Amino acid sequence: MKKRKLILMGMILFIVLSAGCFFYRNSHRQIILEFGMFTGSNWDVASANSFKIIDRAIADFEKVHPNVKIHYYSGIAKEDYSEWCARKLLEGKTPDVFMVLDTDFDKFTSLGVMKNLDDLISSDNSFHKEDFFVTALDTGRNGEHQYALPYEVVPTLMFVNKSLLAKEGIAMPKEDWTWEDMDQICQTVTKDTDQNGLLDQFGTYNYSWRDALYTCGGKRYGDDHSQISFTDSRVLNAVKYIKRLSDINQGQSVTQEDFNAGRVAFMPLTFAEYRTYKTYPYRIKKYTKFQWDCITFPADQEGGNISKVDALLIGIGSRTRHETLAWEFLKQLTDTREMQMDVYRYSQGVPALRAVASSQEGVDCLQEDMDEGEQVISSTLLCHVIENGIIEPKLLQYQQVMNLADGEVSKILQENKNVDSSMKIFQRTVSKYLQQQK
Amino acid sequence: MEENKFNSRIRVLQAGILILNIISVMGISTFIYVTIERIRRTYGAREFLNEIQAIVWYPYAKIWLCALLLGFLTLSMVIRDRLFPNNSKVILTSLIADFIACFAIIIELNFNYNGILLLVFSNVIMYVKNGKSRYILAAVAIGSFILADYELLSISYRLYSIQDYIAFYNATLQQYFLSIYNIFISLNVILFVAYCVNIINEQQGNIDEIHGLNEKLHDVNEQLQKYSLMAEKMAETRERNRLAREIHDTLGHTLTGISAGIDACLAIIGTSPDQTKRQLELISKVTRDGIKDIRRSVSELRPDALERFSLEFAINKMVTDINAVSETRVYFDCMVTNLKFGEDEENAIYRVVQEGITNAIRHGQAREIWITVKMEQEDILIQIKDNGIGCKEMKSGFGTKHMKERIRMLNGAVTFDGSDGFIVNARIPIRRGETYD
Predict the structure, then answer these.
(1) Which of A300, A357, A391, B309 could crosslink A216 through cysteines, CB 3.0-4.6 Å?
(2) What is the pTM of this model?
(3) Hey, are the CB atoms on B46 and A83 less than 8 Å from each other?
């Protein structure tokens, strides 16, 4: 009897001790959080500081969480990043926190690779969705669920060749300028300056029917994101407007050379490009022959002066073993003032946090790099453009249809076809295509 | 011999299903892992992602997990078959555990292979003999087999498909892989069907055998009944013959002697009274001898208990026997010190008590019976009283009629009262001093 009691006691002691050891080991073990990122800028501009922001964020995070180490692979180029992610996924070693490219977002969410953040967001009192730009947050949504948070935002702006306008005696367009304004300016500036019988000064370069569509209040997708209507009057208007602008050029095509030589008045440009080429050292490499600035896009009567907005997203791997830490780190990157200010300081985009984007400190950051006397885009305008910007759906199907549409529109322009009938035929092709995809 | 042959065939089939399933499951998990490695080596990962609907999480760990689960299934089969083939608790637990392990494998393989369920069903069919639970299990089995189908589940759930992984290879290899995959699935089904057919055949054989035996038993039973009837008749005849012989031998012999003696007396009574007297004495002796003989014969026909014990003891024994074999309680109260009478009287009393108890139980459905025997002057009073249903109207049944006859033979009287329970009152005058000894 005594012996049995002794054995029982021994066993209990052993279990308690081993449990204690286990918990001790667990609580003191170093947790390694894997972070997936690529080197360079998401906006295809040169960036020398891509690690600077992350390293600072990691250092801050590791200071607060002493038993956590954040590991990332350096040197993965943006063009290799998608493959790198895919390889990690297949291997079963998805990073805990990782950047997601636009082209991957839809596939990754549908594969269930990315964690649904809804629960984390609703259970975290210190997190406020409203702090973000609505559009920026929406880029990280798929359906009803939030899968990623925006890290930086980049709106598209309209590049204006100030020197050219000044030469032609045209005032700089206002922020709320219209299609008609742009049409008139284009008509004015398009001319043959050296009298060789060929036009050598143009209105727009790269301004596409999609840009026009965003500004006429058009929506290609229905609310259910399943139907694209190319016979919608606004789509037709946009295409017709582009055709009008194109007709001004009398069939001559505008090239990047013309633009670089300062012979084109307008070109869409991302904010990232704007910041890169406005600041040293790129300022002296590109667009040096003329004064330039960026403004909003011209709007149709019904539309607004808005444009496409892109965001760099960061998400959490759905199978992460350190959900809370991953969420903390994700917040550290996207939802802290300090880190977001670093976006202004070291990156080329706009912070995803509205308060940071519009802060005086941010504006100062922008101003710092500019030449003396250069006018910086006002932060109110920037915020307005981002807040009301257009997010393109990331569905692969959508991209495919839009690429088809691009081809169709350029055919209309080149072959001078009737817009209404061509688009009607095209709509039928698209419907058939979508039907097959289902 | 036949049994052994059947058993070994079943075992071979079962082992075949097990091996086939191990190959299939390990083949699929390894194939997925190898394919993923190949995709990674050829840098086609992102492109491959576009083709698939779901990710295989931790493909390498999956191989080990599948191997572990298969090992468990095999172990459980061995334990069940070899160590506890007759312990129903172990069998049930292990079958349920098998089912769970099976589902774990199916989920691990994302329903690309549900043939492993057939392995469990084959075990279930083998062990579950009970008709009702077998139907339930069959329903569960068929239901889960249908529900665990990739095509069905992939509509609403995110599941990876082995076909997507096969599609990674070139067309020729694809055809080979697909064929192998389908062949294994079909082979598994074929083996399972063969197994089922074997089991069904065996059980059909068993049923036929049981039917045959049952019929035989029925025939034999009927024969036995005839024999018993015949034996009864024969016993009766033998008994009659014995009685006849007995009467002839004893009573006939004595009476013949007596009548001859008396004839002789009649002849000589006038001439020689002395000789007549001697002759009569002789006749008296013969008569006594005859009585002795008759008593011996009768005693051979007496009830068993009475033969060996006293009347009181015999009644007590009867009461104890009835108390022991039936739910009815019988209380016997004897107020006579020496219950010793003539044999015919004892017989009558014993029979009356026996009859009374029998009637009370059979017709009255009595739960309790009280028997009292007491003396009143020269008469013996027997009362048999019960708490049964009684009877409002007296019907002269067999029991009461016999009782009446018996008692009348002893110059006694019997009354019946069926108003409250049933009461039998019998009064028998005792022939005191009138003994044969």
Answers:
(1) A300
(2) 0.66
(3) yes
